[in-house]
């Protein structure tokens, strides 16, 4: 009976610890506040460069990060604007106009069939743009140009925590 009680307490404490770690994992941008408009500079109406991003609170066992940015409001279904992975676990920010070579990360394919960032460019109305950051327990195999779906498949069983930052844009 004592062994069972110990195991239950251990499982409960481990799940509380993981939940607390995940709840402290935050993604922010110096370019815009969550839930607020993304400045035109980071869109097809401007320079179309990636905004600066930074994060904190990742689990201590994080080996790498991945980011997927997409538009769930696109008329033809969710539209993927950016896929980047194998960001080293020691990195806690990306500069504006991120150069993945400098940080030894890999660009995946967006829905234009291109690598790198393509900013908001909605055909009509206001859209949400969701930057989702994943903390992973390993570096992924260095396969080039994964799509969002391929990246999600590769990350299965390796996600320690995730967090989002949502910006808005209207053409």
Structure description:
The protein has about 170 residues and is an alpha+beta fold. It has one domain (about 1-170): PEBP-like (Phosphatidylethanolamine-binding Protein, Alpha-Beta Complex). Helix content is about 20%, strand content about 30%. The chain contains three helices and eight strands, in the order αβββββαββαβ. The protein has helices at about 1-25, 100-105, 150-155, and strands at about 25-30, 55, 65-70, 80-90, 95, 105, 125-135, 160-170. The protein has a five-stranded antiparallel beta sheet. The termini are far apart. Residues about 5-20 have low confidence and may be disordered.
Q: How much of the polypeptide forms β-strand, as a percent range?
A: 25-35%
The CATH superfamily turns out to be PEBP-like
Number of strands: 8
Structure classification: alpha+beta
Can you give the mean pLDDT? 89
Return the CATH class.
Alpha Beta
CATH architecture designation: Alpha-Beta Complex
Unreliable runs: 3-21
Instruction: Give the overall silhouette.
Output: globular
> Helix fraction?
10-25%
In CATH, the topology is named Phosphatidylethanolamine-binding Protein
Report the span from N to C terminus.
Answer: 64 Å
Number of domains: 1
